[in-house]
Amino acid sequence: MTTLDELDKRILQVLQLDASLSNQELAERVHASPPTCLRRVNRLRKEGVIAKQVAILAPEKLGLGITAIVEITLDHQASEHQIAFENMMATESAVQQCYRVSPGPDFVVIIQVADMAAYHALAHRLFASQSNIRNVRSFFSINRSKFETQMTIA
Known about the structure:
This is Lrp/AsnC family transcriptional regulator. By secondary structure, the chain is of the alpha+beta class. The protein folds into 2 domains: 6-46, Orthogonal Bundle (Arc Repressor Mutant, subunit A), CATH 1.10.10; 59-140, Lrp/AsnC effector binding domain/regulation of amino acid metabolism (RAM) domain (Alpha-Beta Plaits). It has 5 helices and 4 strands; from the N terminus they run αααβαββαβ. A 4-stranded antiparallel sheet has the order 2-3-1-4, with helices on one face. The longest helix has 13 residues, at 34-46. The two termini are 12 Å apart. The model has no long low-confidence stretch (mean pLDDT 96).
């Protein structure tokens, strides 16, 4: 775990709200000099605290109206089978998130697709045709009441 001081925490809080800020704007918001701010951000990236800086898109504006939350149970749970499943999920662009969980199913996968036909085709390709998948249980979002990426920094 990385030790964070108050300046690091302020930087992370501001970047979680708007990662598009210039270094100058960020420095002003966190009350630090631009060189200090740049050094801190670079260190936080290097240490992996800042894993990625991205734009969060609105799926409904892109014609991706179906969010599926899918529970997957594997037939064989040995480490190599779990890793193989995770690798398969990592290559699929419609898979937004993949979690290995316990107890219950082996994985929970979040999928974003255009419609039910697209989900059916994807589910057949990813799940039904795989010999190591024992059970698939899908839930479809009818309303997203909260979606946040911001984390509380203690």
